[in-house]
Design brief:
alpha+beta; Heat Shock Protein 90; 5-stranded mixed sheet; two-stranded antiparallel ribbon; 28 helices; flat
Length: about 725
Amino acid sequence: MRYFFTSFLLLIIFTGNAATRNSAVDSLLKLLGPKDRLKADTLTINRLNLLSENYFQSTPDSAYYYAQKSISLSRSIKYDKGLANGLLQSAHVDYFKGRTTEAKQQLDEAIAIFKKLNDIKGQIACYQAYGGMYTLIADYELALKYLNLAVNLNKDNGNELLQTNLYKGLGNVYFSRGELSKALDYYYKGLFIAIKNHYALLSGNLYNNIGAVLQNMEVYPNALVHFKKALNLLQGTDNIQALGTINQNIGEILLAQNDYDGAIRYLNTANKIVNTQNDKDGLSSVYTDLGLAYAAKNDFARANSYIDTSLQIARKFKIVYNQAYALVGLANLYNQQHEYQKAYGYALEGQQLSVKLGNLAVKASAALQMSKALAGLGKNADAYQYLNQYINLKEQLKSNESIEKSTSYNFELTFALKERQLKQHQHEREMLFQQRSQRQRLVIAIFLIIIVGMLLTIWIYYREKKRQKEINTKLELKNTEVLHQKTDLDEQAKKLNELNHLKDRLIAILAHDLRAPLSTLKGLFYLLRDSSITHQEMLDMLPAVLKQLDYTSDFLDTLLFWVNSQMESFDITLKPFSVSELVLNEIDNYRDEAQKKGIGFVTDVAENLTATADPNSIRIVVRNLITNAIKFSHRDDNIEISAEEKEGKVIVKIKDHGIGMSKEQLNKLFKSRMDSIAGTQNESGTGMGLLFCKDLIEKCNGEIEVESKPGIGTEFTFTIPVKCK
C-alpha cells in the first residue's frame, strides 16, 4: 500500500497543476521513513531538480519551490550532486526575478561543488547562467567572460545542445551591446546546429532573436517573417517566456509602423504572459511599450502611468536596459506634451545610462529625445549636435554589413536544408540497395535448402525474380528522382549565383547614387556651419538639393519594394483598383518635372477603368515608365499615355517621341546587367528600373513589351488582368 501511495504521489508531481504538485512534494517527503530515506531521497532530489528545470520556462515560482526543496533535502543527507543542481536551478529563478546577489552566492557554491565532482557539464551550466545574469544587468564584459569559459569547457565535451545554447547567450550579449553583426554571427551558428539536430524549441528562440536584430535594423518585413516562424515552432509548448517576448516584439514593430491598435493587442497578450510568470524584466519592458503606444494615441495619463511603473520596476530590480528604455520613453512622452524641461531631464538620465549600456538603439533614441527637448528649450546648436548623433547612430544600426550578413546566412540556411534533403534521399537509396542484397541472399538460401522439390524451387525462383524486378523498378524510379533533385539543386545554385551578382550590382548602384546627394548635403552643412553662405544663398540652393533627395528617396523606395518582392515571404496583394485614378495621379506627380523640359502629356485613359493587381507594384511601374519617357524626350515633345480594357485585360501604353533605342539596346532591356543611358539633358539613372518593372508586372499576372526606333521614340505596353483568375 505504501509503495502504491508513493507511486501515486510521484505521478501527481509530474502531471498535476502547480498547487497539487507542491502539496504532493511535501506529502512524499513526510511519507519517507528513516530507514529508506537515503535511497529514496536521492531519487526524489533528482526528480525535484528535473521538475525545477522543466518548469522554469512556464512557471518560475514552481521551479523555485522545487529547487528549494531539493537544496534542503540535499543538505540534510549531504548529497553534493543534488545540492549543486538545486543551487543552479534556484539561481536561475533568482536572477530572473532580479535577485542577483542571492543568485551569485548560489552559483559560486554550485561551481565549487561541480569542480570537486569534476562535473564539466554542471560547470558549463553555471557559467551559462552567469552569462545570462550579467547580460541582464548590462555587465557585458563579465557576461562574455563566463560564456567564453563555458564554450572552452564544451570544446572537449562536444555537447551540441549546450553549444547551441551558448551561441544564443553570446548573441544576446552582442545584441544588448548593439553589435548587431556579431549577434547575427552567433545566432545563425546556433540556428544551423538547432535545425540539423531538430531542436524545435531552440530553433524558435533563435528565429525570434534574429527577428529582433532585423527589427533594430528596421527591416520590419523580414523581422515579422522570423517572428512568425518562431511562433509556429513555439505555439503550444511550455516555453511561455519566449511566446511573451515574440508577442512583444511584434507589438513593437506594429508600433514603429504606426499601427497603434494592433500594437496594443499584441502587447496586452505579452503583458498577460509576463504577469502570469511574474517576470520583472518582461513586465518592465512591456509597460514601456504600452506607454509609448498610448502616448502615440494622445492618451498621456495612461501612457505616463505605464512608463512610470516600468521605471520603478527596473530601478528596484537593477535592470539597466529597461531603466534607460523607460527614461527615454518618459522623455518622449513629455516632448509630445511640450514640457521640454521635464523631457530634457529624463532624456539626459536615459542618455547617460545608454552610454553605460553601449546599446546603439537606446543611444539613438536618447539622442533624438535630447535633440527635441533642447530644440523646445531654444538651444538650437546643442539640439543640432544631438540630431547629428542620432543620424549617425541610426546609420550604424542599418549597416550594410549586417543586412548583407543576414541575407547571406539565409541563403546558406536554405542551401543547407536542401543539402540535408539530398542526403536523406541518398540514404534511402542505400537502404534499398541493402534490401536488394538481402533478398538475393534469401533466394540463394532457399534454392540450396529446397533442393528436393524442383517444382517448388522453380515456383520460388520465379516469385523471387518477380520481386527482384519490382525492386529494380523502384530503384530506377528512385535514381531518376535523385537525378532530378540534383538538377534542381544545380539550378538553385545557379539562381543563387545570379542573385549574388545582382546583389553586387545593387550595392554598387547604392554606393554611386547615394554618394552624390549625401555629398551635396554634407557640403551644404559645412557651408552653414562655417557661415560661408547667406540665408538667401542657402534658400537658393535648397531646390536643387531637395530635387536630388527626392530622386534618391524615390529610387530607394522602388529598390526596397522590389528587394522585398524577391523574398519568399513577400505577399503580393491582388485586389481591384482604379487604373484611371492611379495613372492620372502619377501624371500629376511628374507634370512639373515634364514642364521644365517643355514636355506635355496627351492622355486617353478610360474613366472608371479598374484592374485586379497589386496597386503599389503597378504604381512603381507607371512611375518608372513616365520618368523614362521624360528623361529621353526632347524639349517641347509630347508623351502619349493611354489605358483601355480589351478581352478581359487592361492595356496601358506610354509612348514618347524621344531618342529611341537600337535593336541591340532593345535586346538588353529587362536584363540584370543593363547599363544606364544618359537622358536628353544628361539625366542620370541606374539601369535597373526596367528589370524591376518586368518582375513586378509578372508577379501581378501581367506582361510587358516595348517597341522602339532610333530617333523616332519608344512605346512601352503592359497588360494586367481585369479580374482574378
